[in-house]
Amino acid sequence: GRLTLSGDILFGISRPTFEGPGGKLFRVNTDGTGFMVVKQFPDAVWDNNLKAYTNSDGVNPIGGLAIWGNTLYGTTSHGGQFGMGTLFKLRTDGTGFAVLQHLKGRSYGNSDGDGLRDLVLSGSSLYGPSFGGGDDGVGGIYRIDLLPTLSIKRANPNSLAVTWPSVWTDYVLQQNVNSLSSLNWSNVTSGIQNDG
Hints:
The protein is mainly β. The protein has strands at residues 4-6, 9-14, 24-29, 36-40, 45-47, 52-54, 59-68, 71-78, 86-91, 98-102, 120-122, 125-130, 140-145, 151-156, 159-163, 174-175, 186-187. The strands form 6 sheets. It has a 4-stranded antiparallel sheet with strand order 1-2-3-4, with no helix packed on it. The two termini are 32 Å apart. 28% of the residues are buried.
């Protein structure tokens, strides 16, 4: 896949050999120093029901990486819950790995697609092509918004429940008892129920 540049650091992928583990993400300074593996993908195991290799993280990173702040975004072509790859994120130092989406594969009418690759960042959204999936099962162009979608529901007459997907672990709930234009925001520390 293509290299991604952030400051004077290059990020890239290495695909596995048939005998090796699930591929790697690496970083290296532009002067050739400081090489390190940022993420080693685990091996996948054969799932007879799905007729595919599956695992928790995906296997065989593919295409280029996208970077937003200190977070890398990428895709794998295989592995994951359904064996058709994953969309993932992790910090540039290798911490905070999370799968954002387990891709479902080539079934017709599946809007997830499979073989997502070559991510391009525009604003706070990622764009890229897929090999399969889509309305006709032959692929399409997808968009993934990188900011979590909040859900707000009335829990009872005196409270609201504010939720967002658990993969967005970098976010916290804050409150402001003054006007919204004030700078007096503080983290909500009580009444939090964390589902992971």
